[in-house]
Design a protein that fits this description.
Layout: E1 6-9, H1 18-27, E2 33-35, E3 39-40, H2 49-55, E4 65-66, E5 68-70, H3 74-85, E6 91-96, H4 101-104, H5 116-129, E7 133-139, H6 148-155, E8 162-166, H7 181-190, E9 196-199, H8 205-214, E10 220-223, H9 225-229, H10 233-238, H11 253-271, H12 274-282, H13 285-288, H14 295-304, H15 308-316
Parallel strand pairs: 1-2, 1-10, 2-4, 3-5, 5-6, 6-7, 7-8, 8-9, 9-10
Length: about 325
């Protein structure tokens, strides 16, 4: 039987909030670690109410949460990290992967990958100034995959808690096929230095087992869009011993409905109105609609609905999953 590595939920801004995380943990489980959507660091700024609410320990009591910070310099990181540490967190993730133009233009996220020297200076200041455990989520480069050699040389200089590699460069955004071969080569030269987690193109249990087989010694698999598309993904991975039997569908339609009812109920309790609740719910459906036959028709129905009551009517009348 193949050993399952650590399974983690990738952060997706506006989607993987504590409300979504708690519902996923309650109705599906199987996720070892949840990474929060990034918190933008500022030298002289306290956490916003929204940022604080998302990472409060009492809002994440049933799961293991790792807060993530987005920053462009060490001072900003250290200020924000100290506030997070006061909540009891000892492991913080540093975002060097976000490809958004508004982020990279400020030298943040994957924008920092354009300057390995500056990146090294930031990391040197961080690691010399805190005893917190720091992991990094990175891409393989900004423009070209050939940049990875220089970036990895910088990472090797620091005692990372974990290196999470999204196997694309920034210019790819989320298009094309993730180049996992670079992660395979990295494992050969760096897995004795720090744990390495693979991220990219894991949408099924079969995908997961493919990467487990191709990346021997991998510490973890991180999934974002795959978990949003199929909340039962971790359960499906854990229910199989190899890729040969990874086609079994672990979803229950009743569980899926209960999962969504809980998300709606908790957003309504907090946001207090249909419009904002529906805005949060509708962000999930471009992914989840693919679970059902005639997915485009279903997605249009959900996008057009204007009240929570109307949405719940659609939810309660969902057809069987197309895999069943």
């Amino acid at each position: 039987m193949m050993q399952i590595p650590i399974l983690s939920l990738a952060p997706m801004e506006g989607i993987t909030t504590y409300i979504f995380r708690n519902a996923l943990q309650k109705y599906y489980g199987g996720v070892d670690e949840y990474f929060s959507p990034f918190i933008s660091a500022h030298k002289n700024k306290n956490l916003s109410n929204k940022e604080l609410r998302d990472i409060l320990p009492e809002n994440n009591a049933t799961l293991t949460l790792i807060p993530q910070i987005l920053c462009g310099n060490a001072e900003d990181f250290l200020n924000t990290a100290s506030q997070i540490a006061m909540l009891g967190y000892q492991h913080i993730n540093l975002n060097f992967g976000c490809p958004s133009g508004t982020v990279t233009s400020k030298g943040k996220g994957s924008g920092i990958l354009q300057d390995p020297h500056a990146m090294e200076q930031i990391l040197d200041k961080i690691f010399s100034s805190t005893n917190l455990s720091i992991s990094i989520k990175t891409r393989l480069g900004f423009d070209f995959y050939e940049e990875w050699e220089d970036l990895l040389a910088v990472y090797k200089k620091f005692p990372l808690k974990e290196l999470i590699i999204h196997a694309r460069v920034r210019e790819d955004y989320y298009k094309g096929t993730a180049k996992y071969i670079y992660v395979k080569e990295t494992l050969d030269g760096a897995q004795d230095l720090f744990p390495i987690t693979y991220n990219g193109d894991i949408f099924s249990a079969g995908d997961a087992f493919h990467f487990i087989e191709e990346l021997p010694g991998i510490h973890g698999l991180m999934m974002g869009r795959g978990f949003i598309t199929n909340p039962a993904l971790a359960k499906e991975i854990r229910n199989h011993s190899s890729s040969a039997d990874a086609s079994t569908f672990c979803h229950s339609l009743e569980t899926f409905k209960a999962f969504h009812h809980e998300i709606v109920e908790n957003y309504m309790a907090f946001l207090k109105d249909d419009r904002n609740t529906l805005f949060k719910i509708k962000e999930l459906w471009p992914y989840m609609a693919t679970l059902f036959p005639d997915s485009q028709k279903l997605l249009k129905q959900i996008v057009k609905c204007g009240t929570v009551r109307e949405y719940l009517g659609i939810l309660n009348s969902l057809p069987p999953f197309q895999n069943q």
